[in-house]
Amino acid sequence: MKKQRKPEELAPASRKYRRPRRFFSPIGVILGLILGLAGGLTIAWVWLPVEEYDVEPWQLHQVDRAHYIVAIALSHSYDGDVNRAVRRLLDLRLAPDPIQAVADTACQLATTGYVNSTSGLRAIRSMMALYQPQGRAGCADTLIAADTIEPTVVIEIALPTATFTLEPPETKTPTPQALATATPFQFAAPTAAPQRDFDLISVNTTCSAQDSGLIQVFVYDTNGTTGLPGQRVRVRWDEGESIFFTGLKPERGAAYADFEMEAGKTYLVDMPGRSDPLREPLPAVPCTDPTTGERALTTYRVIFRAAF
Q1: Alpha carbon distances (Å) from 240 to 210, 231, 234, 243, 277
Q2: Which terminus of the chain, N or C, has less C-beta within 10 A?
Q3: Are residues 186 and 227 in the same domain?
Q4: Is the same domain home to 186 and 207?
């Protein structure tokens, strides 16, 4: 006959079943927070990064602000409009003296490898041409030599000039008549013929409802990766033309510039005086966005690269 156990003898075996239940586990909460934070950062930084649009110039990072100043200076070198350049500098909130800020930026760029390329050297000289007439100065004035004038040569061209001579008259009466004889005329012409500074690398097409009908132009240095701000781009069509510059939309990179087309028209793109125009015009034709299914105009991606 088995001996029955007392209730107090059974307590150790069933004590774990009588413990009070907790509503949550501290360790589980901590692990959940860590996993959630890691997953959220991965999605935000890798899979779905934030794309900034309509960024104000003063909100740019320091490097992008320098590219923006370079673009302003190069634009000024083409149109000579000081008031427009100053208004654009004011958008950067370069207190207290925006013109001196251009000199300081030129000084910083002149002490780096930025001046190792022809385009970089030209950009700094454009900045000097903007701030020097305003009485500002910087270290670039001593580090960068002034731009030189193209050498010229004197060419002699024979042009006709009128002199009076006498022909033997039939009636023995001399009649003056102007006959042309050649005398040398001096004309100064540059020794070097114009050269192309940029080559057209590629023209690609896409269809995007977001960028509908844009001619997106990218201008790079000789390495094909360094964007060049402030480069002059021209688009022409039957009724006229438009001039715009790279680097004025820093959120898309220093190399970027764009032009919005009108449906049914065709356009030619070039860098005036620095590249050959496209061989074939770009037509603004309709297309369907493969992602959204929306109707749009074809988008063109045109890439120029500095010639070697």
Answers
A1: 26, 20, 11, 11, 15
A2: N
A3: no
A4: no
Please report whether residue 17 resides in a domain.
no
pTM, entire model: 0.49
C-beta of residue 221 within 8 angstroms of C-beta of residue 261: no
282-283/286-288 β-pairing: unpaired
Note the pLDDT tens digit of each residue in 10-64: 555 555 556 666 666 778 788 888 888 888 888 877 777 766 666 788 888 888 8
pLDDT tens sequence across 140-172: 888 876 543 333 333 343 434 444 444 555 554
Q: In this structure, are residues 266 and 282 in contact, taking their beta carbons and an 8 Å threshold?
A: yes
**Does residue 11 sit within a domain?**
no
Domains in the chain, number:
3
Structural domain containing residue 165? 152-190
Same domain, 267 and 293: yes
The Cα–Cα gap between 261 and 235 comes to: 10
